[in-house]
Amino acid sequence: MGLKGKLIMSLDISSHGDIFHDIFKHRPDEFASVSPDKIHGCDIDGQRGVVGSVLCWNYTVDGKKQTAKEVVEELDEKNHKIVMKVIEGDLLGDLYKSFKLIFHVEPKGDGQLAVWTLEFEKLNKNVPYPTAFMDFLLDVTRDMDAHKTSQ
C-alpha cells in the first residue's frame, strides 16, 4: 500500500561541505545558537563524531515543540555525509514506524549543494508526508549557511 516513502530536497549553499559535516559530526549543539527559534538544544550521548553516538534534539516545527533521539549510523568524510536514524521522539509512535535523515553535500558547478533525504515508513495511509519537517531542515540549513558565510 505504499507506506514507505522518501523525500529528497537540495539547497545551494555558500559554505563548504566540510563545514556542515564538521558541525553535524562534532558540534551539533551549535545549531541552537544559529537557529534558536527552531532548535533549542542538542545533547550528545557517547563520543562526539563517531558512528553509534546519539543526538538528543529539542526543536520547534510549525510552532510545536518536539524532541528526537537519533543514532548516527554512517559518517562519510569524502562526501560530507551523515546518516541518522530516529530511535525516539515525536516523529515515531503516532506518525512513523521508522524515520531516517541523510545529509550530504555535493558539488554543483562552482558551488555546493546541501542535500537532505528523509526515508520513512508511515504507520497508516492517513499520516502526512513529512514536508513540514523537510521545510524545517532546509530553513536550519539556510540559517547555518548564512551564519557561516557571515563569519
UniProtKB/TrEMBL annotation:
It comes from the Eukaryota. Pfam families: Bet_v_1. InterPro entries: Bet_v_I/MLP, MLP-like_ligand-binding, START-like_dom_sf. One of its GO terms (biological process) is defense response. SUPFAM superfamilies: Bet v1-like. Residues 2-151 form the Bet v I/Major latex protein domain. This is Bet v I/Major latex protein domain-containing protein.
